[in-house]
Amino acid sequence: MKNICTGPIPAAGLSRRGFLNRFGMGLGGIALANIINPAGGFAAAANSGADRGILGGQLHFPAKAKRVIYLFMAGGPSQIETFDYKPMLNQRNGEQLPDSVRQGQRLTGMSGNQSSLPLAGSKFGFKQHGRNGTWVSDLLPHTAKVADDLCVVRSMFTEAINHDPAITFLQTGSQISGRPSIGAWVHYGLGSDNENLPSFVVLITPGKVDQPLYSRLWGSGFLPAQHQGVQFRSGKEPVLYLNNPDGVSPQSRRLLLDRLADLHKHAAEKLGDADVDARIAQYEMSYRMQSSVPGVMDLSAEKAETFDLYGPDSRKPGTFASNCLLARRLAEKGVKFIQLYHQGWDQHGGLPKGISVQCKETDQASAALITDLKQRGLLDETLVIWGGEFGRTSYSQGKLTADDYGRDHHPRCFTAWMAGGGVKAGTTYGETDDFSYNVAKDGVHVHDLHATMLRLLGVDHQRLTYFYQGRRFRLTDVHGKVVEDLLA
Questions:
Q1: Phi and psi of 467, rounded to 5°?
Q2: What is the CATH number of domain 66-237+301-486?
Q3: Of 159, 156, 164, which Cα lies nearest the Cα of 453?
Q4: I need a labelling partner for 350 at 20 to 30 A (CA). Which of 77, 210, 299, 368 fits?
């Protein structure tokens, strides 16, 4: 067929950036308009869909949650000491793990060579709480009070048996590093609800570190760099390298960014490199954060009763309680994904003492976050998730005594809970066997958790993809299903 276009096609060979700049102001013009007139410039960008993610605000399903707060207990909190009550395990304390229960499953090198695998029941009591009688350990008295708001999933399971791949799996959907994190996928798909704060913020509680946390856990992987999480810290410099150096005024910084944007624009027109767009976006966000971050990090305006709700640690910057309070403030500001890390849950020895400390540090603040969000009318639109990378073995690693025992890593079953954001409150889902060694009913894989989380945000996990190295990637890889029974 003869081509009806007889003249040259001017846009042929141009990058997307070059095409837009040739025909109208383009993205560079939008950025400049935002610098000259922030309100008008941002409105234009929002209207163009630039801040609404790759989906452009066109969700696959009606969203039940607008944002996620993920309370990640790094190290693998024991399900047997928290939510998975096992009286049979207590009755058979000290007996050998039955072969019929283990079924030849692999063990780590830390306990696989033990001559004895004695069953170790929990030394802590359990009680039923809430309308539906949710079992909660006596270690978690504050969490027990919000049992009617929780959806406890006792049948989580994963594939990784060691910390690094297991944490990486929970945070990125892959045991192999290099994939985008959950928050990066959420930002990529849904964009941002606040022009002056990152869409994805990370808060880490300093303290005991059994297993290190790497920035790749909140990285963007192969997605554009502006989707990576931004870590907020306590102290005078909440975000590293954000403040202007001595002698550099805000006006000078603005002038520098303007000229830098010109250079990047020139490079983008010649090279068509999407990384240049990402770099400009990050510079501009950093500039706006210089004025927005100090305000959101300043807790001085919070009422005394709010600090009392979260507990005395909430007045100490950097603690888990303080970070939970900050998470609520960030949620109010429209931050879409807020990731909290609390470390030290890896009790290979001295489990009773160790987990008592961990629960004391996190119990009141976790429950307070639920209560605070609920009081402010935010819980219904905020999905809160609590959990770690795996659970504990029902046998003791090391010597079992009357008052002390350890544990090893256990990917076969563990517990997580969710609250708010469209989940079925006051319920317990899934079951494990009498020894909390295997899933007995309604298993929930890591990919299933991710798929369900995205569904609550209005996203089909199979359709939120990114083309990279010849294939389309997604958070749930090629697996995962939405657990419909968890949805309200």
A1: -80, 125
A2: 3.40.720.10
A3: 156
A4: 368
